Amino acid sequence: MSTANPEIYGQPDNYIVTPRLLYRDNAPLLSQTGAFAFPKSPNFGGTENDYRGELRRGITENKIHMNESIDLSICSIGQDKAVSAYGNWQIWRIDRDGNNPKPVRDKYFAIENNVNTFFYTGWYNSGAVERFHTLWTRTNYNNGRFMCWSPNAERILDSSNVNPNVLQYPIVTYGTKSIIGVVWVGLFNKERPDLGLTWVKLEQWRDNYNTQKIAAIALELATPKDITGSGASQKIIYTPHNETAEYGQYQRVSAALLNTIDGRIDYSMLMPTSEFETTGESSVYLLSLYNYDNNRVNCPEDTRVYVPCEGLFENDTVWWSWSKKNGGGDMIYLARVIPYTANNYETIMKMVACFGIPFVTKTKDLEFNMLTGWNDNDLYFPVIDDNGICHGEYTHGADNLTNPFNNLDNVREKNYNPTADIDPNTYSDTTNWNNVDFRQAFTKRYLLTGAQVATLASELWAAQSSKPVDIDYKNFAIDEYLTNNPIDTIVSLKYFPCTFADTAPAVVHLGKYTTNIAATALGTSVRVIDFAPIECFPHFGDFRDYEPHTELTMYIPFCGTVKIPTAEVMGNYVSVKLAIDTNTGAATGYVIVSKTGSGGICVATCQGMAAIDIPVSGLQSANLANAVFNATANWTQTQVNNISANSGLFKHMGGAMGAIARGMTNSISLSDVKGGILGGPIGAVGGLIDKLNPISALQKGMTIDIDNAKADYELSHIQVPTRLVGSASPALGCVIELDCRLIIYRPVTDENALSNYADTVGYATLQGGTVSQFSGFTVGTVDVSGINATAKEKQAIAAAFANGVYL
Amino acid sequence: MFTIDIGYTTENNLKVNKSYTTILTGVQIYPTSTISQENPVFVIDYNAAFLNANYVICSALGRKYFATISTDTANRMIITCSCDYLSSFNLSNCPIQVTRNGGIGKPTKYPDNKFPIFPNIKDITSITRSNSILTANNGAYILTVIGGGS
């Protein structure tokens, strides 16, 4: 990465580095470890350099470090092609209210490129921008917004305290030519510090307020909404920003139009002040103290004057102190103020041009007027070189059309990258879990206890018919068509070694049969059981913690064991999620690896069975009645046939006997048969009839001749209608562990063999350096080209090192 | 004529920049023929103090040497030297890529196929996590019956 353009940023020796971002909780914004170069005054003037100091009761002192080393790798515009303005502007937002990035509402945009350079803006009356920093808006710490060039990816790590691992994505991307900047300056009023800075356009400062100094420079960004006409009549219409604009208004632009986006986006920036001319009076002022508990308080309290801080930035180490009555204040504001001179004006133009966007400086009202086109005399184009670098030169008017900047590609696709080697992928370290549930519309499911199961068995074996007395053929409810055999309604009975939290009461209905079982209705079909994460702490702290030496296997209840690649888990957290399907009893185990113990990616799965099938048997009571009836009829007919064949007594009966036989089911009085049909030897016949038709006899309350009568039926002739539902399943071995278990297979070291290991073999490593940096037995490849020895001697030395020497 | 220092060292031959104990410095050498820079032979007068010497430093040759002392019949001592390459030159600033090092003190994350690990022995242990939803004897029965509608 090349160095910062000194034309813009001054000399690195004058840079000031702050080790942390200017955030309330001192949490670095862009990375967990980064130090961010913060070109500050005197190189960069501007407002609201945010030095955090703990303001307590009494005197507080803080220290500004100067001339510390700067990370030039994050310097921005004005460097090589990879970091030039030839990029896309993107709007970012970090929403600390949750995990979801929200669209940018206002005032923020960013350039995506290869460097970690950011513009920031808060509300336009209190914002501060550093080219190398981002900053939360001071008005709402829960919704930090910023503009940035993001390094190496389209994402920025939100290291806020709320969601330190949430990655945010650019919301909207604009082409470089899709932004027009309006240059504002903040007038510094030391007589009325309570009024803050007064913002005017750059040209207004020159034309109307040139006796006042400025303490800030701002760039308000507008997005041209439409272009009408062509040639000389072409007009660029753009509209001001709507502060309450919702995301819907920030549409992605198409390649054909400049854009269809409303609004302008404000931001202010710090610019190098080393180029600025100053006058005799103090050029540094303490603007204010900002106390979040008591709102903004100008400094010093109750005096309401700006405090000159002469020489504040002119020494290597500067201390400042102030007193405050009330504790809890958070920030102080220091500013470098700049007087109007023609040179200073030109310097500002130059600096703005370095940002690489078109800009205007007049009081031209964006809301009502419009530029006539890219060749408008009030529209400035930065001059861009062949490498896409802007060095501060600019054109305006007709010269814009011949400025190479005019030919920039306005690709505005979200994933467009000006360099080819940026990884376009969006990475995730979290599996998106979805609890798939579905409707059970054709079966009903009940949760039963063991006692309730026993009750169920009793009811299924009860010899009772569930045949309705009356069938209402007009009732077409589905249960009217269900079987009258309760056992026929059962699909399955399964035992789950789990507890279910369902509570909705439900009486068990078996078809039309209502049981006495007050069970519980089962809700969702799939139940997910989470096991707490296990931190896989490296036991040895070296290669022995990984395969093939250390192996990991996860036992998951019902599913068995699954091997886990050690490299994926070691040093991270591993957890298990077990999904049980209550319909089938199937269990699926998921092994999840995460860095923090929450979220994480599923790296392995295994299947099993969590339920035990319980076979269910019962009596088909309705069928039993029919079976008994048919058996009785068959036996009776048999007897009839026998009598008819063996005796002439009934020859004359014939039809009468047939009637009698039929009369077994019809309500024909036996006495009627005796008296009206047979006549004759009634007693014998009657007795025989009784024997023939003992059921009818029973129905009429007649006594059966047990000795001579056949049983109403012989059960041995009847197959009792029973039914078996399901079959016994292997009871999971009957002995099962219900805990998840991470089984670790570790190597065993031969300690006896280690006694001289370091001195004779050495530990495997891969390190570079110089010979003097190592000690002990050392094997390596040494470069002896720089010593004054013969070739043979050099070979001998190299060979010795390759085999091992003692340092 | 040039001089040599005669001494002895107890350091391992593979030690870089050995330390040694000087027996006598400035022993004069009058070479009568060309002297090998790598394996010089010096002839000196007999001195019993040198009987246990094994190390020679020769500034004239810019080298240090392993030395073998022998006594000549003419009551002279013959010092047969071989160059101690590892100590003759300043190797401190030579770049090196180290692949094994005892000075680390312990194994690293780099695989070490020489490390003494028993090949067929494993230490098996485990870590458990439970969930109260799973229960051995107080589970639930789920009865599924036919029946449609909501």
Describe this structure in words.
The complex is a heterodimer of chains A (807) and B (150). With 807 residues, chain A is α+β, with helices and mostly antiparallel strands. Chain A is 14% helix and 30% strand. Chain A is built from twelve helices and 43 strands. In chain A, a hairpin with a 5-residue loop joins β25 (380-384) and β26. Chain B is built from one helix and nine strands. The model of chain B has no long low-confidence stretch (mean pLDDT 90). The chains are: A alpha+beta (807), B mainly beta (150). At the A-B interface, β27, α4, β28, β29 and β31 of A face α1, β7, β8 and β9 of B. β41 of chain A pairs antiparallel with β7 (95-101) of chain B, so a sheet runs across the interface.
Write a short abstract of this structure.
Chain A has 807 residues and is of the alpha+beta class. In chain A, 14% of the residues lie in helices and 30% in strands. Chain B has one helix spanning 85-88, and strands at 2-8, 21-29, 41-45, 55-58, 63-71, 76-83, 95-101, 117-129, 140-146.
Name the shape of chain A in a single word: flat
* Helical run tally of chain A: 12
Terminus-to-terminus distance of chain A: 37 Å
Oligomer: heterodimer
Record the SSE blueprint.
The complex is a heterodimer of chains A (807) and B (150).
Chain A (H helix, E strand, L loop, with lengths): L5 H4 L6 E3 L17 E3 L5 E12 L2 E8 L22 E6 L16 E3 L4 E3 L25 E5 L6 E3 L7 E3 L3 E4 L4 E8 L10 E4 H7 L5 E9 L1 E5 L6 E4 L25 E6 L1 E2 L11 E7 L5 E3 L8 E2 L8 E8 L4 E8 L5 H13 L4 E2 L19 E5 L5 E7 L46 E6 L1 H11 L29 E7 L8 E6 L2 E9 L4 E10 L15 E6 L3 E5 L1 H4 L3 E9 L4 E9 L6 E9 L2 E2 L2 E4 L1 H26 L8 H8 L7 H9 L3 H11 L1 H6 L22 E4 L14 E10 L7 H4 L2 E8 L6 E6 L8 H13 L1 E2 L1
Parallel strand pairs in A: 12-24
Antiparallel strand pairs in A: 1-2, 3-18, 3-23, 4-22, 5-6, 5-8, 5-11, 7-8, 9-10, 12-13, 12-14, 14-17, 15-16, 19-20, 19-21, 19-23, 25-26, 27-30, 28-37, 29-30, 31-34, 32-33, 32-40, 34-35, 35-36, 38-39, 42-43
Chain B lengths: L1 E7 L12 E9 L11 E5 L9 E4 L4 E9 L4 E8 L1 H4 L6 E7 L15 E13 L10 E7 L4
Antiparallel strand pairs in B: 1-2, 1-4, 3-6, 4-5, 5-6
